[in-house]
Write a structure and sequence with these properties.
2 copies of one chain form a homodimer. Chain A is mostly helical. The first copy, chain A, has 10 helices and no strands. The structure holds a DNA duplex.
DNA sequence: AGATTGAACGATTTGTTGATTATTCAGAAA
DNA sequence: TTTCTGAATAATCAACAAATCGTTCAATCT
């Protein structure tokens, strides 16, 4: 079985190289197979299809990212607002960076979420769990107060949806997107209610 | 000049019928021209191109919608929360309805915002103006309090972006979308801050 | 003159063909 | 038996041709 795993790894590694070099579309199964010194047909004993290889790669990469997010969500020295800020900004920056600097990775992400909506959904769920952790901790410290944290996390994701879909960015620069995310976040935290605004002003005056 | 206008109207009417019957793509300029008993070439004395006819139709229709929205935004008997609710829900329902019941109109809207980003932008601006009116009136009554209303309106639009793009709905039903919009709206109004939540509870207890 | 036409032009779309490629599976190799 | 191969298959893609359609404009009409 260890043998099987190492062959699997070989396939993933070869595909990773090819995908990031030539792109998902321009990589053929025959090429990946020959990189691992096997026939194309044999690949299918290890993966159901080409897309599943891409998914394995994406999952691995995304898991690392998720760990990073989790750390941001529970930073000890920062208050809930700052932690939420770090979390949301990190996601925006990652997406923007992939789009700008790594078109191959972006192509892969696009194909996967197109063909496998379940995968995109799984990512959202994972991030929602982290948001719930953040909200839990924030309530414990008396910073935020929400009735249903699972639902609230869903609403935060809904309200920041725009920052996850480059198609909606219409050539906005990263600084502009960041300013906008900052604004939405402040609205989500403080709301439109007067006392929140007063509190915000009091804090700013104190600084 | 009155003559010119009536010819223009004839073109718009003919195109409106054809577009809503067969769709924008399946309607030819020659057909519209023959409906108005003129040659295709003559159309171009009244409109720069096919897309401009569609834009004229969309503008007319959208202006009516905008008037409706404006009324909702300033309803005398309702508080700011209710008026914002009515405004956002009306837009969601209109979009959903177009998508479900009127694929021709949806096709037209899609083509226009694709080919004429300026037009989509103009619509957003108009709705933003209405939002600003709403925020102004709300501040006057001491309901909401925001520093920069233009910016706040932009942020409200940003946070409710998801409900404007059916591509992001992934087969969600209207009731589910409405529940989600309701949640986002509550978050925007009350925020995550504790006093807002307390106030909400106090109000609910009083009812 | 100004208004209108409709043939001509070029861009876009549609349809078709051939090649490429993902996937399968009967059989060979281990 | 289990593991693997590679030719066969079917789906997808690319390239090209044909047709369609938006748009223009020289010629015609009023």
């Amino acid at each position: 079985m260890a043998e099987k795993d190492s062959i699997r790894d070989c396939i993933v590694e070869a595909a990773k190289k090819r995908f990031s070099h030539f792109g998902y579309g321009k990589t053929t199964m025959a090429e990946v197979a020959s990189d691992c010194a096997m026939s194309p047909g044999n690949l299918y004993r290890f993966f159901p299809g080409k897309l599943d290889i891409a998914e394995a790669i994406a999952t691995e990469d995304y898991s690392r990212h998720l760990e990073h997010l989790r750390k941001l969500a529970v930073q000890p020295g920062k208050d809930a607002r700052e932690r939420l800020h770090d979390l949301l900004f990190e996601e925006l920056r990652r997406t923007y960076h992939k789009l700008e600097k790594d078109p191959r990775a972006y192509e892969m992400a696009r194909v996967i979420s197109q063909e496998r909506p379940k995968f995109a959904n799984w990512m959202l769920e994972n991030e929602r769990k982290i948001l719930v952790e953040l909200l839990d901790e924030a309530e414990r410290r008396g910073e935020f107060k929400t009735a249903d944290k699972e639902f609230t996390a869903e609403m935060v994701q809904s309200a920041t949806m725009k920052f996850r879909y480059p198609q909606l960015w219409s050539k906005l620069t990263l600084p502009k997107l960041e300013r906008e995310l900052e604004g939405v976040m402040n609205l989500l935290i403080d709301g439109l209610c007067p006392h929140a605004a007063e509190r915000r002003q009091a804090i700013q005056a104190a600084e």
